[in-house]
Amino acid sequence: QVQLVESGGGLVQAGGSLRLSCVASGRTFSSYDMGWYRQAPGKEREFVAVINTSGGSTYYADSVKGRFTISRDNAKNTVYLQMNSLKPEDTAIYYCNAVDPPGWGGNDYWGQGTQVTVSS
């Protein structure tokens, strides 16, 4: 079981940058693959980025590739999303996600979300 709390959202002009953070509770953070998702008004929640347990492997949605970077610091129980060259289309609520490793129950865990608004 893990609890997630996101922070770092805000209002920024197009071309600007933001760094989102997600802090996890517990002693088993390093056992979880971690991801970021986002949801814009009237749209379904969509995948943004994922990082494996060690941080050695990452994968991004095409819409953010080359602009966003996901990273993690297991010593701090934290995963980050560095967002550069922001566009108005990036406006959404951003959610942190964790999934139980195989054999742990298959549960999904979500944070409360943090709002990112990019103005033109």
Folded structure, characterized:
The strands form 2 sheets. Strands 2, 4, 5, 6, 9, 10 and 11 form a 7-stranded mixed sheet that branches. The protein has no helices and 11 strands. The chain is globular. Helix content is 0%, strand content 50%. The protein has 120 residues and is mostly beta strands. It has strands at 4-7, 10-13, 18-24, 33-39, 46-51, 58-60, 68-73, 78-83, 92-99, 108-110, 114-119. The N and C termini lie far apart (40 Å).
Number of strands: 11
Q: Beta-strand level of the residues, as a percent range? A: over 45%
Helix/strand-derived class? mainly beta
Number of helices: 0
The secondary-structure element order is EEEEEEEEEEE
What overall geometry do the principal axes of the alpha carbons give? globular
Distance between the termini: 40 Å
Largest sheet: 7 strands, mixed
- If you compute it from the alpha carbons, what radius of gyration comes out, rounded to the nearest whole angstrom? 14 Å
For the residues shown, what is the average pLDDT?
95
Poorly predicted regions? none
Estimate percent helicity. under 10%
